[in-house]
Structures are given as structure tokens and as C-alpha cells.
Amino acid sequence: MNTAEIIHGLAANARAAAAKMRAFSTEKKNEALFAIADALESMKPQIIAANAEDVAAGLANGLSAALVDRLTLTDARFKSMVDGVRHVATLPDPVGEQIWERDRPSGIHIRKVRQPFGVIAVVFESRPNVFVDTAALCLKTSNAVILRGGNEAFKSNQALNAAVRAGLEKSGLPMDAVQMVETTDHAGVTELVRSVGLIDVAIPRGGERLIRAMCEAALIPVLKHYNGICHVYVDDKADLGMALSILDNAKTQRPGTCNAAECLLVHEKLAPMFLPMVKAWAADKGVALHDDGVGVEYLSMDLNIATVKGVEDAIEFINEHGSHHSDCIVTSDKERADLFLRDVDSAAVYWNASTRFTDGAEFGMGAEIGISTDKLHARGPMGLEELTTYKYTVTGDGVIRG
Amino acid sequence: MNTAEIIHGLAANARAAAAKMRAFSTEKKNEALFAIADALESMKPQIIAANAEDVAAGLANGLSAALVDRLTLTDARFKSMVDGVRHVATLPDPVGEQIWERDRPSGIHIRKVRQPFGVIAVVFESRPNVFVDTAALCLKTSNAVILRGGNEAFKSNQALNAAVRAGLEKSGLPMDAVQMVETTDHAGVTELVRSVGLIDVAIPRGGERLIRAMCEAALIPVLKHYNGICHVYVDDKADLGMALSILDNAKTQRPGTCNAAECLLVHEKLAPMFLPMVKAWAADKGVALHDDGVGVEYLSMDLNIATVKGVEDAIEFINEHGSHHSDCIVTSDKERADLFLRDVDSAAVYWNASTRFTDGAEFGMGAEIGISTDKLHARGPMGLEELTTYKYTVTGDGVIRG
């Protein structure tokens, strides 16, 4: 079989599994999640051994230390992964939830109800725990999922796949609700995103290059997160202690995350007073300051600084150079804050709070499959609800349109 | 300027207009809609003259009678188009509407608020009133729109564009909130759907060929409506009078619409009794019956018939051969109806009611920009709400992530 045939076969199996998934109650799905967690624990030795092979191959192939670290399933990461599956079982099930209902003068009664997408394809890189996290979220929402991980984690993913499918089998859910792409060529990804009618949506969980390649090839919708070029704008009416505290948190708490700040905007009137404070803070914390990094996603202890004429200027700067992810204004002026909150065209807009809060758990979603920088369907953190669509059910007593 | 430069220029103008649109209140937007309606009325002679030129050219070029009819702006259609603009002004404004708000233990307060997309591109065919309908819906939702109509309606659209922009100018809204693509080559459409970062979403309002071409080229999201292959399944526990009445309405009330039935499924036990009734009805109404039209969208007085073993078989048939648009079960058995409503994977699923109700006005949305057969973002009729995205506004008193 060539790659196209393999992917078509997986997609057809997934479609059939998705049709069966509709019949399972929340309780049954949760039971399956617990069975998967148990299977992961009982198959831990095989999984860790497979992961050790991947790590050894990675080291031999000269994978960077950062990538080797991301690839490695430590005991703590393994436990957190299994805990994650059991946590998803405790979350509310969005499937079947009624969004609204109405009676119409024609005599029809309409209900708008959340439904699974059907089949989701997820393409991810390096970290093998993503395989399990994603499978759990998709199963909880009655979706079938096809997972395509990075080649450097191939054996780890195979072992995780076996455990997840063992859990599904044990609990009587269709095993093909979770499938792994076992071809390693890039054509597999292209075939996935061109599977119109079989796969409903593709979600890349990886770098910008992967995402762009998927979007270029895609005929099916892609839910994506490009990058996080987040700004903190410090207004001349800001409390400077608060501004520095927010900047510090947004930049240094976890500089490698997408919701970390990459650019500080300072009101020009405030600059003479505030910039020396920023320089002292940067020296103390080991942050390198730049003035030529407009639109750069550093993901490191680097920060670009620019001055602006005021809030309107800041809004324009952010909308032009940011990535529509998370941006913050620090000010005591409500009118300026309201303008910023209204006009900055980002998924999450902050007033006197750190951009680091853009996160499914911090937003109270319970779990997260990613953060969307798209505007269609889902924007910002994507939880279980964002893995569903809806349908209208319409009932009548034989009513016809006049 | 080549086509790419022209489209890029339009998109940049639209982006700037979209940023300005955020500042206008509902009242101000409604004022602009009324000004547009007035401008259309005062410029009616020029519009009708331009339309007459298009019609004459169409006749000279051998356009089909059906297309010439769709192209023609009669007095009644002109009035209905202008009334439509004033009607949109009376509808509730979704922009700024709060979807939910919550306080989090961290100390942040989150609001999820509806927002305009920004810039929408709409590509449509033949009927010039679509230009005005679409502009009104996009303006009401604070979006800027770029419209690309069919070449056969080029002069009509130019005249309508002039009137709409005159209305915008008079009311102080940015004129570039509505722009028309005045290049006639297909490359213009391709450039539109590849304008990442400038155009947020593309909406085709036309045939399947147009939609497929746009999806193939697209790098931006496309909200689309492929086709309507709708089914009526008559269960052996159906009231036969009701079944025939629903079938008649779904097939014959307006056979050219996407929510008209194309296929009748009959429970095999019922077939000996019901099919003769169907044949008599078809003969009476002039409906041609087929048994080889599985998956065909007739849009005419033709109907395919198949027998099925029961509700499960009907569900499988519909999910495989339908277009996930609107499908109906006629039965007095609640259990079977519930199964049908749950498992048929369509935008609208009916129990004892005609599929013809799938329509923005019938669903109480006030207006409709189309019916989505997608599952992402919008499914089924798309009204004003479906022309918006959302953002999270997060406020705190200097709170940082721990």
C-alpha cells in the first residue's frame, strides 16, 4: 500500500469508529478513560523501554539537547500524563449539551445541541505525552482521532498507541477511535489534510513550519496556533511597581511559552523614568534588551522595547506587529483600558494582568488542546467545548413550510 | 498594477477600514444602513440602467434564460433588496455581546465577548442583490467586506457599489468598509483566498465548482455551503398522510433550493403500501421518480427512492450518501426518532417536519448569509452571530501567574 492508501484506510476506519462513538454515554466514555490510564500504568515498562530507544537514537542522530529533553518520558512526566487522562474523565462532557432552544411561529421546535466533529487528525512534534493528552480529549468529546507524531518519537508513540487501544478494547469502545499514522514520510501529513469527507478537522500541534505546510496543502479546515508575539504596553498613567511586576511575570516566568511577552511598549512620556527601572530589572534577571526585534518571537530571555505616543499608537503597533495572541495594557485610566480592550485584535486582551494567564486551565476550561490564533470556530485556549460542533434538531407534528 | 497588487491594495484598505469600524456604535451602524437604503433608492435609475446593460450583454452572449432571470433586477426585487437593508438595521447587534464571564481563583476576571472578524471576502455569482445583502450583514457586524461578483453582473455591481459607498460616506463610516473587486480574471479570487493576515475569512456564495476552486487555492479559512442532498425517511411507524404531506412540501414547494428533498427512503415493510401512494402523488404533481440517483442533487422535480431495512439503515444511508445538510424522519416512534436525531450527522435533523425549514428566517435569525455544510465555526443557517468571532478580555489589579 502506498501512503495515500494507508491514510485513506485509517480515515475510513476512523469514520466508522466515529459513527459508533455517538452511542456511548458520558459514563461509558469516562470508564474508557480510566481503563486507558490503567493500561498505560500496566504497560509502563514497555513504554519506557520504547522511549529509551527513541532517546538513544536521537542522541546518536545528534538531536539537540532541548529536543532530547522534550522527547524523554521521565517518571514525573509519565505520572502527569496518566493523571491527565483521569482528570479529563472528571471534566463535564460537552456532547449533547443544549446551547439554546426555541419555538417558532411555524410550529417547529428547534434545539441547538453540541455534537462531536467526527474525525480529527492531529499532527504533533517531539513530546510523546501529546499522543495521550490528545487521545483523551478527543475520546471525551466522542470524536475519533488519527495521530501523527514526530518521527523521533516513533517507538514511544507506538507503545502509547498500543496502551490506549488496549484500554479502548477493554472498555468496549471502538479501538479505531484512536489510530496512529505509522508511515513516516511527509506525504502522510498531506494526505491527512486532503481527506475531504473523511476527516473533519486537522489540528497541528507544532512549529510554524509544520503549520504553514499543512495549511498550504489543506482542503479540510485546520485549527491552528501560529505563534505568540505578546506585548505589554505601559501607559503613562500606570503604577510603575505593577507594570514591572507584570512585565517580569510575562517575560521571565516561562519565557519559552507562547503567552510570554516578547515586546515592551512604553508611553514616550514615561520612558525617561521607566526605562532605567527596566534596565536595572533586566540586568538583575538576565534579560537581554533589544530595539530591533519588532515582530520577533524570541521564546527566550530576550525582550524588544519600543516607545509609543499613547494608547492609540500602542494598539496600532500591536495589531500590525503582534500575532493576535495575548496583549496587555498597564494603566489606571479606565477609558484608555477600555479602548485597548476593544481595539486590540487579539484572542486575549489584558488590563493590569499578566499575559501568562492565556491557558486552558487558568481560564477554567479544565484541559487544553492548544491555543488558537485563528478567528474561526475557536480563538484563544481550546478546551473540550472547542472540540465539538453543533447541530439543530427540529421537531414538529407534521408541520410543513407555507 | 497586476491582479495581485490590486487585491493586496483592496485588502490593505479593508484592514484599515475594519480597524475604524470598531469605534462605531450600533446606532451609528444602523444610521449608515438607512443611509445606504436611501442612496440605493435615489440612485435607482442608474442602477436599473446598468443592470439593463448587463442583461442585454447576457442575452447577446447567449446566457441561459435561468441565468438572465437571476441577473435581472425587477422593481419587486429592487424593493425587496432595499427593504432587506432596512430590516438588517432593526436586528440585534451581536458585536460586544458577552457570551460568558467568570472570576478565577487567581484573581483575574474573564469576559468572553463577540467581536467582528475584521475583513471578510465574499465571492458570489449572478444575482446582484447579493452584493447589497452581504454588505449590509457585514456592516452590521462591524466587518469590512470585499465583494467579487460574477462578471455577467459587473455593471450592476458597480452601480450598487457606488450607492452603498455613497451611503457610507454620508453617514461618516469608512467608505472602504465595502469594496468591489473590479478585475474580472479568476486570479483575483485566488489572491483573495491567499491574503493571510489581511483577510480573515472567505465566503463563497455560488456553485460547487466555485467553492472547490476556492478551497483548493485557500490559505485563509473558507466558510462554505457545498450542496443540499436532503433525505426524507418514512418509517413503518409513520402516519402516511403526514409522510406524504412532508414529502410533498420538501420536494415540490421550491425544488431549486438546497433544503429541498432529493431522496425518499422508505422502510421496506412499508414500501408495498406506501410506494403506490407516492407514485400517485408524483404523477399528480409532475415529479419524476428515480432509483439510480443516489447522492444526486437534482434541484428539480426529480426524486430518488430507495428502501431501507429500518432506522439504523436509513441513518447509515444518509451519512454515506447525503451532504450533511437537512434530513428528516417521519415516525410516531420516539425511540427511533431520538436515534435518528442523534446519529444523522447533518446540520439540521428533522422529526415530523419538512426539511424546507432550514433557513435563517425560519430559524429566527432575522437574516442569512448562507447555510454552512461545514462543521467548523458555523453549521446550518448563518446569521449575524455567525459573522462574528470572540475575544477574551481579562482584567486584574496587577495580578501575575504563580
Describe this entry's structure for a reader.
2 copies of one chain form a homodimer. With 402 residues, the first copy, chain A, is of the alpha/beta class. Chain A has 13 helices and 15 strands. Chain A folds into 2 domains: 239 residues, 3-Layer(aba) Sandwich (Aldehyde Dehydrogenase, Chain A, domain 1); 128 residues, Aldehyde Dehydrogenase, Chain A, domain 2 (3-Layer(aba) Sandwich). The longest helix of chain A is centred in the N-terminal third of the chain and has 19 residues. Strand 15 of chain A pairs parallel with strand 12 of chain B, so a sheet runs across the interface.
Q: What is the gist of this entry?
A:
Chain A is of the alpha/beta class and about 400 residues long. Helices cover about 45% and strands about 20% of the residues of chain A. Chains A and B meet through helix 10, helix 13, strand 12 and strand 15 of A and helix 10, helix 13, strand 12 and strand 15 of B.
Q: For this structure, what is the CATH class of the largest domain in chain A?
A: Alpha Beta
- The CATH superfamily of the largest domain in chain A appears as Aldehyde Dehydrogenase, Chain A, domain 1
The rounded Rg of chain A comes to 24 Å
How far apart the termini of chain A lie comes to 54 Å
The largest sheet of chain A has its strands arranged as: 9-10-8-7-11-12
Topology:
2 copies of one chain form a homodimer.
Chain A: H1 3-21, H2 26-42, H3 44-60, H4 65-71, H5 75-90, E1 98-103, E2 109-116, E3 119-124, H6 129-140, E4 144-148, H7 154-171, E5 178-180, H8 187-193, E6 201-205, H9 208-217, E7 230-234, H10 240-252, E8 261-267, H11 271-285, E9 288-290, E10 302-308, H12 311-321, E11 326-330, H13 334-343, E12 348-353, E13 370-372, E14 380-382, E15 388-399
Parallel strand pairs in A: 3-4, 3-6, 4-5, 7-8, 7-11, 8-10, 9-10, 11-12
Antiparallel strand pairs in A: 1-2, 2-15, 13-14
Helix pairs in contact in A: 1-8, 2-5, 2-7, 3-7, 5-6, 10-11, 12-13
